[in-house]
Each structure stands twice: as structure tokens, then as C-alpha cells.
Design brief:
The protein is an alpha/beta fold. It has one domain: Rossmann fold, CATH 3.40.50.300. The chain is about 45% helix and about 15% strand. It is built from 12 helices and 7 strands. Strands 3-4-2-5-1-6-7 form a 7-stranded mixed sheet, with helices on both faces.
């Protein structure tokens, strides 16, 4: 079983879409997947569930109340092998209510232990910052996937993520690894993106996933319709890209 955080301190790099479609690819391969939404925007949850504001339990309740098991908050999706622990705007409370608790970044790890034997993969969608939620994800995860774009600012931004990962390794989770950097929204027709992809691969080496994800409206359609790309358009090149990514994740 692998616990994987999808993290980057920058918004708009496609974390939620990657989490969403990777779950679909892994499920198609027969892997049982639990998604955990740790972004207060709840975009991942909204992709699967019609109304995240009327749910009896969300991840906030699990983290703030030690009596509530993670199992109690798990919701089955419409897709075989994919379950989710949803989030909504209430997740913003954890920063204020748990920040003074010196052990709060261990709470997610403790809760995930309750269900880790039930799943092949647990994928955790992170918020676009390096606050308590992201620290909690790093503490709970075996590995991290870091999405980035073939742009100058994207490469520079990885330094901040590295810094937090190193701190977590030293203090809370020595087993944490970077599973890989995933180039997303790639347009190979543009020379500047070709050049930055070369720079990224040279700078980050074997840690860059072989499968880059092209910029495509089909991924937007997948999230909008609530169907991972392997279910929405199973014969498309976009679906095949996520199958290849899924194989890299399974073998990584």
C-alpha cells in the first residue's frame, strides 16, 4: 500500500485534476484507491459528489475529533475501486484550531493507519500552500508527486517544497520520498516549453516522470463531468497518458 501526496505550494498546476484522473487509471488497473481531500476548496470532492456542504462528515471532523474514525467519513463514489474522504470550506478551521497543538501534523497519519490495509493506494490532494495541511500530508505519506509546468517560475518554486520535505524528513517522517516531478499542461509545439522541459529533466534527473501530461481541454471536461479521463474517454491519448503514469506510480 502506498500513501501519496499530490503537492505543490503553487496553485493552478493541476494537482486536483492529476489526483482525480490518476485515481481513475489506478482503479481501472484493479487497484483499490482512497482519495483524501485536504484542500478547503473541496474541488476534488465536488468532482465526485453533488453537494459537499451537506455531508454528515468531512475530513475536518476526523481531524478535530479523535473519537471519529476515518472510516466513518469515507464515501463511496460512482466508480468501482474509488472511495473518497471529502472536504469543504470547514477545513480552513484546522489552521486556527490545531496550529497551537505541537502534535497536530501527526493527526492525519494516525487516522490513515485505521484504513491503510483496506486500500492499495491512498492519494491525498494538497492545498496550494505549505501550511499545516501540507505538513500533515508530508508526515502521513510514503511519497510525494510534485506537479509543475515547463516554465521558469515552476522550477524555482520547487525549492520551497524541497525545504519543507527536508524538515519533515528530519523531524517527523524519515521514510518520505519524492516519487517524482510531473510535467503538466505541456505544449510540445512551443520551443520555450521544449527548452524548459530539457532544463527540468537535466536539473531534476531521474525524479522526473517519463510521462508528461499535455495541455488538453479533455482534462477539464473530465473534472467538469465528474468522470476520470480513463472513464470519460477511454480510447483517447489523454487516457493513455494517465495509464502510463499509473504504471510508473505502481512501479515507483
Amino acid at each position: 500500500m502506498k500513501k501519496i501526496g499530490i503537492c505543490n505550494n503553487k496553485g493552478g498546476v493541476g494537482k486536483t485534476t492529476i489526483c482525480f484522473c490518476l485515481a481513475g487509471a489506478l482503479a481501472e488497473m484493479g487497484k483499490k484507491v482512497l482519495l483524501v481531500d485536504m484542500d478547503q476548496q473541496g474541488s476534488l470532492s465536488s468532482s465526485f459528489l453533488p453537494n459537499t456542504n451537506n455531508l454528515p462528515l468531512v475530513i475536518t471532523d476526523v481531524l478535530l475529533n479523535r473519537q471519529i474514525s476515518l472510516k466513518d467519513a469515507i464515501v463511496r463514489t460512482a466508480f468501482e475501486n474509488i472511495d473518497i474522504v471529502p472536504a469543504n470550506l470547514s477545513l480552513s478551521k484546522i489552521e486556527s484550531e490545531l496550529l497551537s497543538d505541537r502534535d497536530s501534523h501527526y493527526y492525519l497519519a494516525d487516522k490513515l493507519k485505521q484504513v491503510e490495509s483496506d486500500y492499495d493506494f491512498i492519494l491525498v490532494d494538497a492545498p496550494p500552500n505549505l501550511g499545516l495541511a501540507t505538513w500533515s500530508i508530508f508526515t502521513a505519506s510514503d511519497g510525494v508527486i510534485i506537479p509543475l509546468e515547463a516554465q521558469d517560475y515552476s522550477l524555482k518554486g520547487t525549492g520551497y517544497v524541497h525545504g519543507v520535505i527536508e524538515k519533515v524528513r528530519k523531524r517527523a517522517n524519515p521514510r518520505l520520498t519524492i516519487l517524482g516531478y510531473l510535467i503538466n499542461r505541456y505544449d510540445g509545439r512551443r520551443r520555450i516549453e521544449q527548452d524548459f522541459r530539457t532544463i527540468i529533466e537535466k536539473h531534476l534527473g531521474e525524479k522526473v516522470f517519463k510521462q508528461a501530461l499535455k495541455d488538453s481541454v479533455k482534462y477539464v471536461e473530465a473534472v467538469t463531468t465528474g468522470k476520470p479521463i480513463t472513464f470519460l474517454a477511454p480510447k483517447s491519448e489523454q487516457a493513455e497518458a494517465f495509464r502510463e503514469l499509473g504504471k510508473e506510480v505502481i512501479n515507483g
